[in-house]
Automatic annotation (TrEMBL):
Reaction equations catalysed: 2'-deoxyribonucleotide-(2'-deoxyribose 5'-phosphate)-2'-deoxyribonucleotide-DNA = a 3'-end 2'-deoxyribonucleotide-(2,3-dehydro-2,3-deoxyribose 5'-phosphate)-DNA + a 5'-end 5'-phospho-2'-deoxyribonucleoside-DNA + H(+)
Cellular localization per UniProt: Nucleus
UniProt name for this protein: DNA-(apurinic or apyrimidinic site) lyase
EC main group: lyase
DNA sequence: AGCGTACCTCGGAC
DNA sequence: AGTCCGAGGTACG
């Protein structure tokens, strides 16, 4: 698959050579995935991880490995025991009410929230996103993440600030100075699907990793120039 | 429909 | 040391 992506995009080809050990696009549990990305809005990864681990402590204790405690991610019912104040105290900020509201909304689904989330698997991507967006704190980006990482929607493109940077730099440079707006969300998404096709979401994930200030990538530095689709150097 | 703006918190940059 | 900025967006006017 990487070869296909590399053929489709020169930048992908170059980046792929510099990502050690590959990247994994995990098929996550939908509940866990949803609440993780519910914490992600306007936030940094370190704090997101802290918030997620504080939610996990409401799940069953699994054991201790190498000095680290592990917990099963809480069920929706278990999550419903957490108050907004507890979440505030745990540093969730304004996302505290999103968590409480989404738990409540899920509990009210006929057949339960877990079942409702699973039922989204067999729907079209646009319907999946639309349904998920009815939850408080869930917009198009979070919905796309949940769809891609936990609901088998491999062509979902979560358009976040990083993807926006990538897209305007390499694929649609004419929008370089525009603000990331909902209207342009689809524009970016279309650009990725046009370029990478069925598994565009996976390609997006790799390019996203390339943007992160992470030791996982050792991007080419110093002097090397490349060209984007419009033959502009970067 | 489309566009501005506020929003919790917090580590790093200056 | 104080201030400012921005981070895997969303809700609301
Ligand atoms: Mg929503």
């Amino acid at each position: 698959m990487w070869q296909d992506f590399s053929f489709s995009d020169i930048r992908f080809a170059e980046l792929a050579q510099h990502v050690d050990g590959g990247a994994r696009v995990l098929k996550q549990n939908p509940v866990e995935c949803l609440f993780q990305f519910l914490c992600s809005s306007n936030n940094n990864i370190k704090r997101i991880e802290k918030m997620v681990s504080s939610m996990e402590r409401f799940g069953d204790f699994l054991g201790n490995v190498g000095g680290f405690d592990f917990y099963k991610f809480p069920s929706i019912d278990r999550l419903s025991c957490i108050s907004e104040q507890q979440l505030r105290d745990a540093g969730f900020g304004y996302r505290a009410k999103f968590v409480v509201g989404t738990v409540k909304a899920l509990q009210e689904k006929p057949g339960g929230g877990e079942h409702w989330l699973d039922s989204l698997r067999k729907m079209e991507l646009c319907s999946v996103v639309r349904e998920l967006c009815t939850l408080p704190g869930v917009g198009p980006k979070v919905a796309s993440c949940v769809a891609l990482f936990s609901l088998d929607q491999h062509h979902a493109i979560p358009v976040d600030t990083h993807v926006w940077q990538i897209a305007t730099r390499y694929y649609i440079p004419e929008l370089a100075d525009a603000k990331l707006a909902p209207k342009l969300f689809s524009r970016v998404s279309d650009a990725f699907v046009a370029k990478f096709g069925k598994y565009a979401g996976w390609a997006q994930t790799l390019l996203f990793i390339g943007e992160l200030p992470s030791p996982k990538t050792k991007k080419p530095t110093g002097g090397k120039k490349c060209k984007n689709d419009n033959n502009e150097t970067y």
